Amino acid sequence: MRISARADYAVRAVLELAVRQGDGPATPVTAEAVAAEQGIPYKFLEGILGDLRRAGLVTSRRGGGGGYTLAREASAITVADVIRAVDGPIVSVRGERPTGLTYTGSAEPLLPLWIALRANVRRILEGVTLADIATGELPEEVRGLAADPAAWENP
């Protein structure tokens, strides 16, 4: 699986909003401030924030004191929500969803493999919210997987 720069920037941008929002009332954060804090090219970020707004994950306000805020609580937005908003389906094979594929002959067992891969990726990304990351308290399953030294190796 490959995480695009667009998806990485989107997650970092909404995480920045979540951290700045904290538990209090949401104060809008400018795109410029997010770009500067996260090292994201501003023009690229503008497009990403537009996608996130259209997906209902962030809201925007124009003018003095304007900027972006999360549209929902950070605990109600998953990493999967953010990735889908900017990149579409989380796992695809040749640009298609695995459920739309057909294999024959010796390749037939590939379909359940791709479906299982998608199920596992979704389980992780749908199980982690912005609040989990903002507080540094990732779910136990994620911490356990990341604690395995083999997970850090590049075979």
For the structure shown, list the relevant keywords.
single chain, 155 residues, mainly alpha, two-stranded antiparallel ribbon, 7 helices, 2 strands, 5% strand, globular
Q: What secondary-structure arrangement, pairings included, does this model have?
A:
Blueprint: H1 5-21, H2 31-38, H3 42-54, E1 58-61, E2 67-70, H4 79-87, H5 110-126, H6 130-134, H7 140-147
Helix pairs in contact: 1-2, 1-3, 1-4, 2-3
Give a brief description.
This protein is mostly helical and 155 residues long. 50% of the residues lie in helices and 5% in strands. Strand 1 and strand 2 form a beta hairpin.
Question: How would you describe what is shown here?
Answer:
By secondary structure, the protein is mainly alpha-helical. Helix content is 50%, strand content 5%. The chain contains 7 helices and 2 strands, in the order H-H-H-E-E-H-H-H-H. Strand 1 and strand 2 (67-70) form a beta hairpin. Helix 1 (5-21) crosses helix 3 and helix 2 packs across helix 3 (42-54).
The main sheet orders its strands as 1-2
Beta percentage is 5-15%
The string of secondary-structure elements, in order, is: HHHEEHHHH
Count of individual beta strands: 2
Structural class: mainly alpha
Give the overall silhouette: globular
Helix coverage percent: 40-55%
Radius of gyration, in angstroms, nearest whole number: 18 Å
Low-confidence stretches: none
pLDDT averaged residue by residue: 93
End-to-end span in angstroms? 15 Å
